[in-house]
């Protein structure tokens, strides 16, 4: 039976530490999709304990329909939520929203991570203000997993930072490596810097400096160097590092190509009886490909570089997709994602400081 937390008692006063806080009211299909997704996740993570934030009057009947979700959830009631179209600045003022309570739980140490399918901009703003950026990290980044010919790849940044400097890119490499270790289970992920060419002289100054720093860092043996757009789907590296502008464009372009390919396949196999017979012959292979490329498998973008695990589910996902986002969060919590980042930053601290000091000593170039 799920338990009820009094809205008048701060969650920091409760004794139980939850695996995750989950925003029960975030997303297009909330709260139904959220609760159904938690029922799926309960099978995959039997020991998980969830602090479910949201309107108890709406959540409790849904939990009664999903006993597995009910068995792992404790409700923290609030009747406030962040609408999908609310501006981030306005969301910051809703002090008792279901999203805010989830962030508060992580900040206070009562939950080790938070998952929400709600407003992306509001979620990033709240994460920065409430959970806060990890010491040693200049800016949080958005990371996610995408399919490749060889397996999966971690990409970051995907839109949190439109403009980046060399230090941001190096930090993204550190965070991406920790992500690939925690979620993909790779002992030594290969890292690539996305560029307009693989040659060492290609790209702008920030890319060249980031490359030089990584080649001298503890990540040197894992650093592949510069990669191009086609290397992303080729699986040339396990981690793709870029600025948020380029990363978001690459992600959306990939999604568009996948939709186009799916549409073209439908057209090909619907043209006449021969094509339909051909479809029947290749259908098992197409079904396997569909399962492999199913976007629900890759649901769960992560805001990395924060003092806690913060996972953003796609707002329009279904129960299976939401469960996948919970899987990502649990992998990160279970495998000490943030500990891996702290360890790397400790080893790289002197190198980063030396490079920063060197940059500051260089005389400014003035226009003649």
From TrEMBL:
Q: State which pathway it belongs to.
A: Lipid metabolism; phospholipid metabolism
What are its E.C. numbers? 2.3.1.274
- Where it mainly occurs, coarsely classed, is cytoplasm
Where does the record place it? Answer: Cytoplasm
Q: Which GO terms describe its molecular function?
A: phosphate:acyl-[acyl carrier protein] acyltransferase activity
Gene3D superfamilies cross-referenced by the UniProt entry: Isopropylmalate Dehydrogenase (3.40.718.10)
Q: Which UniProt keywords apply?
A: Acyltransferase, Cytoplasm, Lipid biosynthesis, Lipid metabolism, Phospholipid biosynthesis, Phospholipid metabolism, Transferase
Q: Does the keyword Protein biosynthesis apply?
A: no
The answer to whether UniProt assigns keyword Cytoplasm to this entry is yes
Similarity comment? Belongs to the PlsX family.
Question: What function does the entry list?
Answer: Catalyzes the reversible formation of acyl-phosphate (acyl-PO(4)) from acyl-[acyl-carrier-protein] (acyl-ACP). This enzyme utilizes acyl-ACP as fatty acyl donor, but not acyl-CoA.
Per its record, how is this protein called by name? Phosphate acyltransferase
What organism does this protein naturally occur in?
Answer: Acetobacter senegalensis
- Write the lineage as a comma-separated list: Bacteria, Pseudomonadati, Pseudomonadota, Alphaproteobacteria, Acetobacterales
Gene name of this polypeptide: plsX
């Amino acid at each position: 039976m799920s338990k009820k937390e009094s809205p008048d008692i701060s969650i920091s006063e409760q004794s139980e530490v939850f695996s995750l806080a989950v925003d029960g009211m975030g997303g297009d299909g909330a709260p139904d999709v959220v609760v159904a997704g938690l029922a799926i996740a309960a099978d995959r993570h039997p020991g998980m304990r969830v602090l479910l934030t949201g309107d108890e009057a709406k959540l409790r009947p849904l939990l009664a329909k999903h006993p597995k979700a009910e068995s792992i959830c404790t409700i923290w009631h609030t009747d406030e939520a962040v609408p999908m179209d609310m501006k981030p600045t306005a969301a910051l003022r809703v002090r008792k929203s279901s999203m805010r309570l989830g962030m508060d739980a992580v900040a206070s140490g009562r939950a080790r991570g938070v998952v929400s399918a709600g407003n992306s901009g509001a979620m990033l703003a709240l994460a920065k203000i409430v959970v806060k950026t990890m010491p040693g990290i200049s800016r949080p980044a958005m990371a996610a997993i995408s399919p490749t010919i060889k397996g999966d790849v971690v990409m970051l940044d995907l839109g949190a930072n439109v403009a980046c400097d060399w230090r941001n890119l190096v930090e993204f490499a550190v965070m991406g490596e920790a992500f690939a270790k925690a979620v993909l289970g790779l002992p030594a992920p290969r890292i690539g810097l996305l560029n307009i060419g693989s040659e060492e002289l290609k790209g702008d100054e920030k890319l060249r400096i980031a490359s030089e720093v990584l080649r001298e860092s503890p990540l040197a043996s894992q650093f592949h160097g510069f990669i191009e757009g086609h290397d992303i789907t080729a699986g040339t590296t396990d981690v793709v590092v870029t600025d948020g502008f380029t990363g978001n464009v690459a992600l959306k372009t990939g999604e568009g190509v996948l939709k186009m390919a799916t549409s073209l396949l439908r057209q090909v196999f619907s043209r006449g009886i021969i094509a339909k017979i051909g479809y029947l012959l290749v259908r098992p292979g197409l079904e396997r490909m569909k399962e492999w490329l199913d976007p629900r498998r890759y649901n769960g973008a992560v805001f990395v570089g924060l003092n806690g695990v913060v996972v953003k589910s796609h707002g329009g996902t279904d129960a299976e997709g939401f469960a996948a986002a919970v899987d990502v969060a649990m992998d990160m919590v279970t495998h000490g994602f943030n500990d891996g980042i702290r360890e790397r930053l400790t080893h790289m601290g002197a190198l980063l400081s030396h490079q920063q000091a060197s940059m500051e000593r260089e005389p400014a170039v003035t226009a003649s």
